[in-house]
Batch of 4 targets.
Target 1
Amino acid sequence: MGMYDVFETDEDLETSGVWIDYGDFRVKIASAGPGNKLYVKYAERKLKPVRRAIEAGSLGQARSNAIMSDIYAVSIVQEWEVKDPKAKVAADAAWVSGIEDRTGKMIAVNKENIEQTLINLPRLFSDLQEQAASLSNFRKAENELDSGN
């Protein structure tokens, strides 16, 4: 496998996003990389005021999580769906837009709810960050293999 096969990403996929399937719910995410111009610009704007604190290692975890969850809610997370709880057979379940809250209630997919969910579930947030940064999710060669080309 050559270096282009390893490092070349599909620019359309970086912005149009990929689905990360967690079984009963799935999240469509864009890339947290240079191919996602919205992410690059928005992250730069949000991180600029705290850059010195980051460099000094004095930015607290709660503040860091709040900033990053905002960045992800605006520029990375594109859609959030759950399997329709009304489906009689799990295999027949259709995907419906929404986020399941702590009580099992469906809430709207919007910036505030995405941010709060990412803050409430730091391990999910961590996994989404890894997935958004993973070359393999947005790699051109793998996308062509998946599509049968």
Target 2
Amino acid sequence: MKYAACLIAGCAALAACNSSPKVNEKNASVAEVAQKVQEAGTDQSFIRAGKWQSKVTIDKFEVPGMPADVAQRMQGVMAQQQAHSFESCVTQEDVKRPKADFFTGKNNECQYDHFTMGGGKIDALMHCPGKGGSGETTMQMAGTYSPESYQMQMATKVEPGAGGHGGVNMEMRVDSHRVGECSSNG
């Protein structure tokens, strides 16, 4: 869940205000999309840097083949975690120069089928090949943003890897808003 939260914080760093230039890429690498977002925003105000408060809600989490009692315990733990929001500091540098690996971590083989951002909306579909025995990951994102808030819906599907193990289906949403300036300790 922490990875997903970082992913959503990345969306905030990539999002520009409603009068922003548009980015519309197809069949592009993560680095290419990050570069296009940087280029499109060089003369525009991105979301406001500062302290952001986010709440992640997991609407669906399925692991095919998982025993029912394990799934029930996992859902209980996840429900407890969802009761809390988290804060993150988005720096001016984050706003101006989003990192290419914000969405994918260290998997630089991911490819966007499409990435569209503009007019306060973002829509993307990305595929990442399996690594370390896991199967291919498909991530779909759609949401809205402004300088002071964003909402994002995400659906992630990890195909079973070698031997048919490790598949996951997850749907989540993030609601985030700016709550002030960052403190000196983050």
Target 3
Amino acid sequence: MSQALGNAGVVPLEAAQIERAMKPVFNPRNSQEKDHYEIHRSTDGHFHQLIYWPKVFRDFEYVTVRTSTGGPFIASRMEIPHDETLAGVSGDIHESLEKSMANQGVPREVIYRLADIFGWRIDFLTEPREGDVYKIVWRRYLGKSATRDGEIISALYRGKETGEVYAFRLAGDYFDQGGESLRGEFLRAPLQYRRISSYFTEHRYHPILKFFRPHHGIDYAAPFGTPASSIADGVVIAKGWEGGLGNELRVRHAGSYVSIYGHLSGYPRGIHVGAHVKQGQVIGYVGSTGMSTGPHLHFGFERDGRLINFFSLKMKNSRKSVPLPERPHFEKIKKNAQVLFDQLAKPGAPLQVLKPAS
């Protein structure tokens, strides 16, 4: 930040005073590249005010630092007045969930949020089928010059492979129609991928070795550097070069399960043998190391030391359900969600603003 202020003509002494004043409301050490700021000067060219928009803040929050008659600078955390509303869409799958929803004007972060919510129940690459139906309602905040999309409050996916899966938000978590948590033992996929290039099979033609052999894993084609996440809590038991899999990582999970991630280009800091990792934590990055014809993640899965087809595994949920005292409130949430779903226009229509359920 001091370098940016200096480039804008703020003298070093004032820059240091500005940073010192900011610390109680925003630590300048948390500044990020492409944070936005404005510097206001008096008519004689002296510094008057800094307006700073940290990316780590919500879209309607910012910091001001201004001169004071008492001498030192005064910093404040401010918020633009804004209104809260509800947005929603109803649609059906054509090609992919992302493309279908994007065509309706749904922001990318909302699409990814939906995929995360259903990530324990639905694999949005292998399971969606043409004509599957989805409905989604989320909070939207509108200010004078900014729009922020907030949390999803209810969603539905009805598919030929998945059946009907609901998501209702309660106390920061999501529950299905029966009040069972959507969180599962394993994520359905280790990364947000573009496409699957090769499935688990006993008879696959190897593009480099030029002969058929078993392929006991799943290949997720994705660009270099795409983050790969641990499918569950666990402990790293192997990291490093592993023959044809190149840079590999193995994570041991409860129940004698081991997940395997191959052809990685690298690892984030803190990932080492013995490290404890959380479900969804980034543990590596897609690459093309080892025997590989292009960037992809090879994902393998072992049970009791034997490679098995991850797609055939029956997933368990977290067994967490809506507490008995919260059941009446949860039933009201479901009823209100249905009222909102009923407001949604025909599938494929642009996103719309909804009236809150009474």
Target 4
Amino acid sequence: MTMSVVNIVRCVLLLGVLTLGACASSAVVHSSGGALMKIELLGFPGCPNTPAMRENLRAALEGAGAGLGSTFADVNQESLPESDPRRGWPTPTILVDGHDLFGMPAPSTPAMGCRIYPNGVPDAAEIRTALNGTRTGK
């Protein structure tokens, strides 16, 4: 009897660890003031602007007084299935709840490409401002 209880407890604990591991690996839900935002950074290893965008997004989320936390999913487009619509966004792109943070319309085809921002990769302040606008519905 005692052995079966121990086995059940082990199974429950293992299931809990596996579930938490799966949740932690996706890391896409961001809580801010009660609102939930799914933030994804789309890029791929050969994209020269992805590292700068990653650092700027991280800085924007961690910025003093931003109130945004620091959770986002770093998505490698090359690892996505061919049919995944996220492959169609040019990189680097920040998606919030599936929409481009800077207003680019959703792509119609899943063809990867590079994104050129008019003034270069947005800095942390520009990203923070855009995220705050998304959060407040502006």
